């Protein structure tokens, strides 16, 4: 069973935290609810290939995208974690947190912003159902710096890392939180941390590999804009 969600939320997102039956009653024009999450990072996993570029890469905003299984609908296309809100989810946000955990192994720590709301019609043999998807920018508990674990060092507030003989953390050996993504192979075959330009190449230029579906690319590009605006407003250089 998934662990109990443990997250906070921006105050303006409180309407999504009401009990699911109440939310359904308020939004009774919809027959089905879907939730999605967008997870950002300003660091990238270190590999021998990018080690020399790592310092510059730390300042580059990237988003987690999952590649759909080839056996699934829209096979091979890219998306953020998400899925249907289940009847036994306490509320919309709990459903999103559950889907993030199931599809990426990451635990939502905060709901930051509503990035998108999309509607579409699902045709049934005897009716047409209106479906809505709410996509949120979220932070995750795993987004912590690597720390030394030699001889019990560290305060427990970071991701354990491999260490050098002197007890320091070797940059090329750090087990960064971005590498802790754990996929459900029945749903996704790969994950990447992708830049805004890489998303744009797939969405607008149609030349890139990160192609999405059902308007997801537009929502992702909008989320990048939101993240830049947040950085300007709070004077920070950090992402969600």
Automatic annotation (TrEMBL):
It comes from Aspergillus mulundensis. Residues 30-218 form the Nudix hydrolase domain. GO terms for biological process: NAD+ catabolic process; NADP+ catabolic process. This is Nudix hydrolase domain-containing protein. The keyword Metal-binding applies. InterPro entries: NAD-cap_RNA_hydrolase_NudC, NUDIX_hydrolase-like_dom_sf, NUDIX_hydrolase_dom. One of its GO terms (molecular function) is metal ion binding. Keywords: Hydrolase, Magnesium, Metal-binding. Its cofactor is Mg(2+). Coiled coil: none annotated. The lineage of its organism: Eukaryota, Fungi, Dikarya, Ascomycota, Pezizomycotina. Pfam families: NUDIX. The keyword Hydrolase applies. CDD domains: NUDIX_Hydrolase (cd02883). GO terms for cellular component: cytosol; peroxisome.
């Amino acid at each position: 069973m998934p662990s109990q969600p443990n997250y906070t939320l921006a105050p303006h997102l409180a309407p999504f935290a009401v009990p699911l039956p109440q939310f359904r009653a308020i939004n009774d024009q919809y027959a089905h609810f879907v939730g999605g999450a967008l997870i950002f990072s300003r660091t990238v996993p270190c590999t021998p290939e990018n080690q020399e570029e790592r310092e510059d890469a730390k300042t580059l905003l990237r988003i987690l995208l999952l590649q759909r299984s080839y056996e699934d609908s829209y096979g091979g296309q890219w998306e953020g974690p998400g899925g249907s809100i289940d009847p036994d989810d306490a509320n919309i946000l709990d459903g999103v947190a559950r889907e993030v955990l199931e599809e990426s192994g990451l635990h939502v720590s905060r709901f930051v912003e509503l990035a998108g709301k999309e509607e579409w019609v699902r045709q049934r043999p005897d009716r047409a159902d209106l479906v809505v998807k709410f996509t949120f920018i979220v932070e995750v508990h795993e987004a912590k710096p690597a720390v030394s674990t030699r001889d019990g060092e560290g305060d427990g507030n970071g991701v354990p890392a491999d260490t050098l003989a002197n007890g320091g953390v070797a940059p090329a050996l750090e087990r960064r939180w971005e590498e802790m993504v754990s996929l459900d192979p029945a749903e996704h075959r790969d994950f990447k941390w992708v830049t805004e330009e890489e998303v744009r190449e797939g969405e607008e230029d149609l030349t890139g590999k990160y192609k999405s579906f059902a308007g997801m690319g537009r929502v992702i590009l909008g989320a990048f804009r939101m993240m830049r605006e947040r950085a300007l407003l709070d004077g920070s250089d950090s992402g969600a």
